[in-house]
Structures are given as C-alpha cells and as structure tokens.
Description:
- Belongs to the YajC family.
- This is Preprotein translocase subunit YajC.
- It is a single-pass membrane protein.
- The chain crosses the membrane at residues 20-38.
- The chain is an alpha+beta fold.
- It has two domains: 2-52; 56-99, SH3 type barrels (Roll).
- 46% of the residues lie in helices and 23% in strands.
- It contains two helices and five strands; from the N terminus they run H-H-E-E-E-E-E.
- The protein has helices at 2-11, 14-53; strands at 60-63, 68-74, 78-82, 88-92, 96-99.
- It has a five-stranded antiparallel sheet, covered by helices on one side.
- The radius of gyration is 28 Å and the shape is rod-shaped.
Amino acid sequence: MSFLVAADAAAGDPGLQGYLVTYGPLVLMFVVLYFLLIRPQQKRQKTRGMMLGNLKKGDKVVTIGGLHGTILEISDDTIVLRVNDVTKLTFERSAINAVSNQPAVDEKK
C-alpha cells in the first residue's frame, strides 16, 4: 500500500494530468487537421494566386468551364480570350483554371 501512496506523490498535481487527458486529444486533433487540411489548402490558394497574377497576353489557358483559348487582352479583373479566329469571349480573371506551359504561336504571318 505504501508503494501506491509513493507513486501518487511522485506523479505530482493530479489536476495537471486531468487537463492533459481532457484537452490533449483536442489539441492533437487540431494539429492533425492543420497539417492534413488547412496547410495544403493554403498552399493551393497561394499557387493559384501566383498563377493568376502571372497571366500575360499570348498565354494559352483553360477556364473553369473547360473552354480553351488564348489571352488577347488582360486587365485587373477581366480577360478577353480568343477561342478561334472570329470568337472573342470576356471572362473574369478568377475563371481561369490552368495555363499551358507554352504561349500560343500566331499562325498568321
């Protein structure tokens, strides 16, 4: 019996252990959620913002709706895309989903 009393005295304040048992899993869940959900989403937002900020005339792009085109005009919040030789469409800058690696080459010389 004296061994159990000595173990309780060595353990320290039982209130501290109670807090760790109560709030430890909550803190652990928040840390896991941060690294699995929040941090990757922030990285994707940063990458997308950089992509939208680096758009320039002549870039081949794909819109969120799947429309492929070449940027003819660009302003702070709108973009004019050339879909074919005749068709020009205006989109919000945020409607751009992806940029092709190579700029479009004019076939008319």
